[in-house]
Amino acid sequence: MTPKLTGRLVGGATGTYDMVLTRTFRASIDDVWASVTESDRTARWFGAWRGEAGPGRTVEVQMGFEEGTPWCELRIEVCEPPRHLAVSMRDEAGDWRMELRLTEDGGVTTLELVHHLADPAVAENAGPGWEYYLDMLVAARDGRPLPDFADYYPAQAAYFAAQARAVG
């Protein structure tokens, strides 16, 4: 399988960089929102979470498809159903600040994942990971077999490294 690349790296408004990846779904915005916020549904493509969710609160997310399926804390910065979710997470790889932005037009929902980066070089490794996870989301929603990370990394790393050099 050769996965399609959707990620692009752009300069952010505050001297940071935004890695933006997009997927579209023939589904309502409420249904896609449920796929990215309900624990039993996130477990299918990313990992289950536990705790009391809400803006300013921290939940624990189990990285269900990472080696050892570790748990990590995820702070919910903004939650505006069904259009905007901003979170921050810390794990052994560092600090992660991300947003999910959803829009619906004519029965098609577009999901945009924005990963805010202080160092654009992080995109070389994180970009293939997000392409993989978003394709996992698509496959889980469609009831198809989940993709294999080996099809994403290291094959897509050069693409994201080139984007990092272009904006850095």
Overall description:
With 168 residues, the protein is of the alpha+beta class. The chain has one domain (8-38, 81-167): Alpha-D-Glucose-1,6-Bisphosphate, Chain A, domain 4, CATH 3.30.530. Helix content is 26%, strand content 36%. It is built from 4 helices and 8 strands. The protein has helices at 29-37, 39-42, 123-142, 157-167, and strands spanning 8-11, 17-25, 49-50, 58-62, 71-80, 84-91, 94-105, 108-117. It has an 8-stranded antiparallel sheet with strand order 1-2-8-7-6-5-4-3. β7 and β8 form a beta hairpin. α3 (123-142) packs across α4 (157-167). The relative contact order is 0.22. The mean pLDDT is 94. Residues 27-139 form the Activator of Hsp90 ATPase homologue 1/2-like C-terminal domain. Pfam families: AHSA1. InterPro entries: ASHA1/2-like_C, START-like_dom_sf. It comes from Polymorphospora rubra. This is Activator of Hsp90 ATPase homologue 1/2-like C-terminal domain-containing protein.
List keywords for this structure.
Alpha-D-Glucose-1,6-Bisphosphate, Chain A, domain 4, single chain, 8 strands, eight-stranded antiparallel sheet, 4 helices, alpha+beta
Largest sheet: 8 strands, antiparallel
Kindly report how far apart the N and C termini lie.
Answer: 31 Å
Structural class: alpha+beta
Shape: globular
Mean pLDDT, all residues: 94
Q: What is the domain total for the residues?
A: 1
Determine the strand fraction and express it as a percent band. Answer: 35-45%
Strand order of the largest sheet: 1-2-8-7-6-5-4-3
